[in-house]
Each structure stands twice: as C-alpha cells, then as structure tokens.
Amino acid sequence: MKHSPKHMIPMFFFSLLAALLLLTGSRAEAATAYQHLFEDYEKTEEKVGGTWFRQDDSKLYYSRDGKNYSLVAEGYHTYFTNGTLVLYADSNTYKLYRFSCNTGKTKALKSLPTEPRKYDPDYYNISAIYQNQVFLTRSSFEAWKYWTYQYHLKTGKFKLVLNPGLITARASKYVIVCHDYTSDVSPVRLSLYRITGTGLKKVVQLAKRGLSASFVKGHVYYGAYSKKALTKLTIYRRKQDGSALTNLGTITGKVMLIPYNYTSKYCLISIDGINYKYTYKTKKLTKVS
Q: Domain count of the chain?
C-alpha cells in the first residue's frame, strides 16, 4: 500500500503492532532474566526482583522499598530490566543506555548507527533480550524500513542481524520477525528465527502475507492470507521450533479479517469491526461482545 500521512509516525505503529502481534515471550526463565517493563500498557506499576517501577507519562521511576521513587529516565523508550539494571535505547541521542538501580547512575553502552543517514522520524527500540544478547530495532518512516542489530552485553560486539526486519515476539530462544514496514493494516511477511550464540538464524517463513503471530504454550500461532485483500484467512499452528505444521482452518469473508489474541483453543477475529471467536476444534465463528 502507499505511504500513509506522515503524522502516522512509527511510534504509533509500534503500539499497534504490539497489540496485533501480542508479545508473549516466555515468562518461565530465571529470575535474573531481563523483562519488558509495562508490556501491558494499562499498568502503571510493576515489581521485578526486589525493585518497584512506576511510569508516569514519559517518565520511568524506580524504588527499592515501594514508597520512595527516583527517576530512571525520561522519554517514550522501551525499557527492559532484571530488577537491578535497566536497559533502554534513546532515539534522540542514538545511544543504548544502562541504568543501575544500585548506584542510581546511567552509562552509555553503545552509540547506535545512523547510516546511511539520519531519517525524520527515526526511532530505536529494544525489541528483545535473550541472555546477554540485546536486539535493537531501528524504525524509519522516511526510509520505510526496519533494521535490527545485536549488541552483546559481555563482549560489547555489535552487528546488523536483520535487514529488513523487526522482532515482534520472543519465547525462549525463538523469535517472530516481521520483514515489512507499514503504518496501517497491511499484509506483511512473517518468519520464525532462532537466537544463536552469534545472532539469528532463520528457521522457517511463517507467511508471505500475514498480519499477526503469537507464542502460546510452546507453539506459535499465526494467520496467513491467500489474497492481498485480506478476505481469506487460514490459521496455522507450529511447534515453537517451527516443526509440526497444523492447519487450524480457513475463514472466508467479503471484508477484511483481522486475527488477534491467539490462545491454545481459539483466537479472536475482527470482521468489519465486529469481534468473533474462532474455535479451532469446531472451526466455528461465534460473535463476542
């Protein structure tokens, strides 16, 4: 589709994409694993490890006792924390930062690329963290593209791992990648990758024309369209490692079909603004309020 008006900036799309793709990375990791703060946008306070965090508009605060809060940073950043350290990318300074909840100090870890030039607007966000690997995605409305880089927390090594590509969800060492930039509801290419010791390795293409995908209980669920008009949708399930492809049924309509909120038994589908529950076992649509 053609470019949308420029006021539909990438920050809006990050929120839209997060809602559609339902970032459901694995929660069953060690307590010291980095977690995405305020992935649920309705929350204003979270506790990770022994630290409380509170967001107030564009400001993030932390507290060791849950009562006395101090500023971490200001700006609409994507924050990840293990309860002791907070990592975030600043699109104004083009740098990756680390904040220590023990010392209250901030350190710049890495200057982020602006090649071939700075775009307007131009955004960096942390899209995933796995063990010591931080994945940062650059989003440019002007260039109409995503790039994703890998930064290693221990070695300091930095490299481009997706061109183009945006990590939209993670479960353990597997990630879902969207390859196409868009600021509206348009079909995109979706793939499954595995995080390796040196970056990312493609496992399988999920859909040439997709819209949303989620990790649910050791599986990845996603929809694929047979037409650009988004009126014929097939729901698929694979094991988290990309194996055991299962066709969960096809829905055909006269208007755009938008799947979201995948579970192990059903998903929700918006049809002409009306929400339906699609049950995989019965392959039936039921209207929901």
A: 1
